[in-house]
Amino acid sequence: MELYSTDRLAAARRAAADAGLDALLIGPSADLRYLTAYDAHALERLTLLVLPADGDATLIVPRLERPAAEAAVGDAVRLVDHEDGTDPYAIVQDLLGDRAKTVGLGDRLWAEQVLALRDALPDARQALAGAVLRGLRLRKSPAEVEALRRAGRAIDAVHERMGQWLRPGRTEAEVAADIAAGIREAGHATVEFTIVAAGPNGASPHHGVSDRVIAAGEPVVVDIGGKMPDGYCSDSTRTYCIGEPPADFAAYYAVLHEAQRAAVAAVRPGVSAESVDAAARDLIAAAGYGAQFLHRTGHGIGLDGHEDPYIVAGNAAPLEPGMAFSVEPGIYLAGRHGARIEDIVVCTDDGVERLNTIDTELVIL
Ligand code: ZN
Ligand code: ZN
Ligand code: ZN
Predict the structure, then answer these.
(1) Which bound ligand lies closest to the C-alpha atom of 305?
(2) What is the rounded CA–CA span in Å between residue 165 and residue 181?
(3) Residue 205 C-alpha to ligand 1 middle, in angstroms?
(4) Cα-to-centroid distance, 195 and ligand 2 (Å)
(5) pLDDT at position 276, please?
(6) Looking at residue 213, which CATH number applies to its domain?
(7) Domain check: are 296 and 235 in the same one?
(8) Which of 31, 15, 33 is nearest to 23 (CA)?
């Protein structure tokens, strides 16, 4: 049960052909890592996977990146390198010539590369490769679910240490620095984000951190995530309170807690993504906080921290086994405080598995 299976290239070729694309052109991104296991740096020098629907894959790399690329892809993909001062787009032209009528470009390719590819392949219509690759990445393999389970356990272990770090008199930034070290100690390769949002900052869902000193009695939203060495991401939010919470906060936290559980419980194959959003939103709205839940309920997760499927009104697509995503409703009272609870879950053959398994009650420190 290999995590990075070389079958992915064959599956991508078939999916490209089905979508009427003659080739996929993929730069450094989660798509590239998904297809080749290569975690390439996005640089001004061109790194590009050229994957014809009817031929073998070629990875174009800057000469100085060749050893790193070779180590990652092994012999699954042919490598062609280019030297500084030469035109790498001529290699794309040589590989595809005029037989490519429509090319699928990686969704995260830089505009300067998109335009250079238009000049190199003037007769080829450009489309997005994401439309094709999304379908492959959407359902996680058992090996990918296991990777996300490991990531979930790792970030849970960081939340379990919060009492060591989150204390009155410290700034959000000081606490976040300790959390970041804890994220690495728990086995992540990189820290992707650390949100420590105390008091009124908790009402801003993507606050980040500040030099604000945390006071006793303040609710604190802690949303943290990293990337494991295998590339798969963690993402989990818990809300803490240093001492007894304000009464109005405790009241809406109870609503949020129930809403998050209801949304998790709604997950099973065949139900729509938007119905999971509604399961949380209806309870929050019924309690009078509808306007204070100001974002979608969740996002998919895998090699990207945010990817399909999105758990949002308007996404009527049915959930399928292997889909992994966050369930993270929040209630935000501007100027006062806020709360969010976030677990990563995976849709199983007959229901749901939480990949974050620690308690979702308000944690009083
Ligand atoms: Zn977010
Ligand atoms: Zn999060
Ligand atoms: Zn999230």
Answers:
(1) 3
(2) 11
(3) 7
(4) 8
(5) 98
(6) 3.90.230.10
(7) yes
(8) 15
Q: Using CB atoms within 10 Å of the CB of residue 135, give its burial: 0 to 12 exposed, 13 to 18 middle, 19+ buried.
A: middle
Number of neighbours of residue 37 by Cβ within 10 angstroms: 21
pLDDT in tens, 18-65: 999 999 999 999 999 999 999 998 989 999 999 999 999 999 999 999
Q: Are residues 229 and 288 in the same domain?
A: yes
pLDDT confidence of residue 302: 98
Report which residue type is found at 87. D
Q: Flag whether pLDDT at 1 surpasses 60.
A: no
* Contact present, 88 and 48 (Cβ < 8 Å): yes
Same domain for 204 and 311?
yes
Q: How far apart are CA 290 and CA 333, in angstroms?
A: 11
C-alpha of residue 150 to centroid of ligand 1, in Å: 21
Looking at the DSSP bridge assignments, the partners of residue 25 are: 50, 105
Backbone angles phi and psi of 105, in degrees to 5: -95, 140
**Cα of 295 from ligand 1 centre, angstroms:** 9
pLDDT tens digits for range 283-321? 999 999 999 999 999 999 999 999 999 999 999 999 999
- Pick the ligand that lies closest to the CA of residue 345: 3
Ligand nearest to the CA of 304: 3
Q: How far apart are CA 362 and CA 41, in angstroms?
A: 40
Cα distances (Å, whole numbers) of residue 59 to 38, 53, 67, 115: 10, 15, 13, 19
- Domain holding 86, by residue range, is 7-137
**Rounded distance from Cα 25 to ligand 2 centre (Å):** 31
Ligand in nearest proximity to the CA of 237: 2
Please tell me the distance between residue 299's alpha carbon and the centre of ligand 1 in angstroms: 8
Q: How far is the CA of 164 from the centre of ligand 3 (A)?
A: 24
The per-residue pLDDT for 160 is: 98
Answer positive or negative: Cα dihedral of 350, 356, 362, 363.
positive
d(CA 48, CA 112): 13
**Which tens digits make up the pLDDT trace of 143-188?**
999 999 999 999 999 999 999 999 999 999 999 999 999 999 999 9
Whether residue 168 sits in one domain with residue 107: no
Q: What is the whole-number distance in angstroms between the Cα of residue 91 and the centre of ligand 1?
A: 39
Give the number of the ligand closest to the Cα of residue 299. 3
